[in-house]
Amino acid sequence: MGQAPRHLVPSRSAADYFGAQLRHWRQLRGLSQQQLGRLTLHSGSLIGKVEKAERTPPPDLARRCDDVLQTGGALQRLDPRASVDAQHDRNAVSVVLSEVGLAWSSDLADTVEVAGQLWRADVERRKVVIGAAWSAAAFAAPARDWLAAWTEPNPTRADGRRVGAAEVDVVWSMCGTFANLDHQLGGGHARTTLAHYLNTAVLPMLKGSYSQRIGTQLLAATARLCDIGGFMAFDCRRPGLAQRYYIQALRLARDSGDRSIGAHILADMSMQAQYMGDGREALALARAGQRTARDCGSSLSMARCCALEARAHALLGDGGSCGQAMTRAERALTAATDEEPSWVTFFTSEQLAAEFMYAAGELGRHADVQRFAPAVLASSAGMQRRLALATATLASSYLPGGGAGNHTADIDQACEVLRAAVPVAATLASPRTVNILHAVRAQLRAHRSRPAVEQLDSEMESVLGAAS
């Protein structure tokens, strides 16, 4: 009986990554090492050693493998022979890491490996990963693959230490803990702690031994935890890192078979796209979330995804479609039951009112913002981030501007309202919230000669620092 392929660690070096990619493409084309060796005029033994980074590939191997495997030149671009010294090798690893977490892996083993690479890179503070830029196209393929024809998952592993139900229960418990910390203190408070937990506690479980039932629950809990990591990174204004966490969270949810978690992740992805100003991508993700919510029967998830569709329409300037989506959100919220997933129970009528308020702000409907604001602010006790964000939206509604002008414009009132959000934001580790407050502050600079604006500017500089 043949031996199981040796586990690869692609992030260790450029040679390791080249070997892992060579194995990936070879298996994708259904070839054995011996077959590929014959087709490239090399031996199967050499192919095996290159895959395990035990041999440097000969000068012509990458080119021949690209031709046989039809990779479009991928292997030649990764050929570690281009690294002529240690600095070049580090640069090659940086190129490798720049793509970590963006792939939608073909099977569970690859998914665990890619997720592990992402978490390790985060823990190691790899700048090329944690400082990665937002990619407008990065979500399209994962969302498409998520919606593609499903097969019944069978997340069973027979290698490594045995993982039991008690350990999975702890992971679920940690999901609640980290989510509460995010809600109360902002994404920056415990983000690095969550990354360490994923890397040191959860990853060994994923590489352990478990039954289908335990594996399903473990993957679902990990997907939820990875989603929280994505939201924390998003709240910390780490857009590329957040994208990678979301993509791997969605992939883990797919292997768990839990569509309700998938709907929630797609909603979070839509929210990030909306924040980044990509209305079309936000719309597509919100609709993918609705389809998933319909499949799993979660009315609260449907309500949230409809509300996010409405915000995407508002960002695109389509008030009519925004109103229709909000109506569907209200209907879905009314249909919610006590059986909803725990992670979406925060989406109450008060949260929907906040979404109405944000959408009205995007559309320049200042009077509507001011009409929704009292109820939203009054219901935000204990939800400091929502309180600060809603206050910033209200302050913006008093600034001049809008399609037909703002009949409620009042610069002094805008300053007074925004000032109330400053001490709230100061209690949060939420760079996203601070950035939104600074954006309103920037709008007020046109009126910097007014005493109220001058006083607010000085106070924000003192409490929140300079705008980034």
TrEMBL record:
Tell me the ranges covered by the HTH cro/C1-type domain, including all copies: 22-75
User: Which CDD domains does the record match to this protein?
Assistant: HTH_XRE
- Cite the SMART domains for this sequence: HTH_XRE
GO MF annotation: an example: DNA binding
Q: Which Gene3D superfamilies match?
A: lambda repressor-like DNA-binding domains, Tetratricopeptide repeat domain
Any idea what this protein is called?
HTH cro/C1-type domain-containing protein
